[in-house]
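User: Can you predict the 3D structure for this chain?
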Amino acid sequence: MFRSAIAILIAASSASAMAQMTPVGLWRTIDDHDGSAKSEIRIVENAGVVSGRVEKILEKGKQDEKCVECKDERKDQPIQGMEILRGLKKAEGKDVWEGGNVLDPNNGKVYRASVTPIEGGAKLQMRGYIGFFYRTQTWIRVQ
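Assistant: Here is the predicted structure, written as structure tokens:
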């Protein structure tokens, strides 16, 4: 009986830890320049494809801003509620989702993107690329 209980606890904790090695969830974005919290992004998976939407803007006075610099259908749309992460798929044999893109609503630029859960899934490394140049942010899991 005691061994069965321990086995169940170990299996449950292992499944919980593995479930966190995914980008799916709610993430607090941290500015890579000044370290401030900017927004909360909800990342979801649908048919193996990951996308992310701005669920909440944390910066005071910016909740009603629109993406005036966007070049696609997001132009002049509210940033809060906007899908900024699109089309990422899990790389075979790795805990990396790539092949999609991320929009920076501050400048309207769309970058190739990859996301990697780190520190047991407590943080997410978000990397946006243009050519050989890239910018990396570390996001913190909210839930």
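The chain has one domain: 2-141. Strands lie at 25-30, 37-46, 49-57, 83-90, 97-104, 109-118, 123-130, 133-141.
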